[in-house]
Amino acid sequence: MLEELDAPLAPLTTLRLGGPARRLVTATTDAEVVDVVRTADEAGEPLLVIGGGSNLVIGDGGFDGTVLRVATRGFALDGTRLELAAGEVWAEAVARTVDAGLAGVEFLAGIPGSAGATPVQNVGAYGQEVAETITEVVAYDRLLKETVTLAGPDCSFSYRHSRFKADPDRYVVLRVRFGLADAGGQSSPVKYAEVARTLGVEAGERVDLRTAHETVLRLRAGKGMVLDPADHDTWSAGSFFTNPILADRQWGAFMDRLGDLRAPAYPAGEGFTKTSAAWLIDNAGFKKGHGSGPATLSTKHTLALTNRGAATTEDLLALAREVRDGVRAVFGVELVNEPVMVGVSL
C-alpha cells in the first residue's frame, strides 16, 4: 500500500484534469481496500474511490480528503466462469476472454477503465451490457461494515445505472464475476446496426469472435474512443452525455419540434423511447471539433468533450453547459452527464 500527500489526480484520469488529493492511497489487495475505507469512515474522513479514472470529472480544487486508488489484480477463469479483481484493466480483461474463446463481453472491447467500475455504470456499447453476463458482485458495504456478495439480479441494472450508482457512498466493489459462453469460437449475436453493417451480416447473426473484437476496436478508434496519449481526441471521459430516454408525453413534444428532421428512436420499455445524444448535439449545431478554447468537442465524435492539452475542469464544464443548454433550447431535451462529478456540477 502506497500513501502520498498533496498528490496530483489529473494524471490518474483520462481527461487529465482536476486538482490534487490531500491524501492518495494506492491499494493492491482487497484487504487493503477494505482497511482504507473502514479507517476513513471511522474517522469521518471524506473518501473518493477511483479505478481507471475514465468516467470521472474532478474539480480544479481537487479533493480535500482521502482518495483510494484501487489497483488490485486478479483474472481467474474456470470454464466459462470469470472472476476479475476490481483493479483489473477492463480492455485487457476483455481481450483475454476473447483469447480464451469465450463470448459475452467481446463488443465491450477497448473501453477504458477498471473492471470494478463496470457494474456501477452498467457499462455497455455496441449492443452489449455487462448486466447480461455479471453473475455476482463482491463489494464492501459501508453501511453494514462487511463484505457482501450481490447476485446479478440484485444489482438493479438498467441503462447506465445500478444500485451501486444509485447509492454511491454505500458500496466499494472488490470483485466482479461473469458467466460467459463457449460458442465454438463465435461471437454473441450481433445486435448493433453499425457493427452488423461493418461486418456485412444481419442483426442476430454470429461472427468469428476475434473478428467481432477487432471490428469494435477499429470502430472505437475511429471515434477517438480508444486511449492514445498522442491523440487529444482520446483525452476525454468517453461519451459525456447519456442517450435521453423520453416518456411518451416528452417524446410527443420532442417530435413536434423536429419539423422535417427524423431523430433516432429505440424502444426503451413500455411508454418510453430512447434517442441519440450525439444526434441531438450535432443537429443543435455543435459539430465535431466545436469550441475555440482549450476544451473542445472531439474532432471524431460529438459526444466526447476533450482536453486539448491545457484545459482546466472549468473549461470543460463551460463547454458541457454550452452544449447542454443549446440542445435544450433547440429540442427541449435535457442532456444528463454520464461521468461522475467530484467537487463540481453542471
UniProtKB/TrEMBL annotation:
Its EC number is 1.3.1.98. Pathway: Cell wall biogenesis; peptidoglycan biosynthesis. Belongs to the MurB family. Its main location: cytoplasm. It is found in: Cytoplasm. It comes from Kitasatospora camelliae. This is UDP-N-acetylenolpyruvoylglucosamine reductase. One of its GO terms (cellular component) is cytosol. Transmembrane segments: none annotated. GO terms for biological process: cell division; cell wall organization; peptidoglycan biosynthetic process; regulation of cell shape.
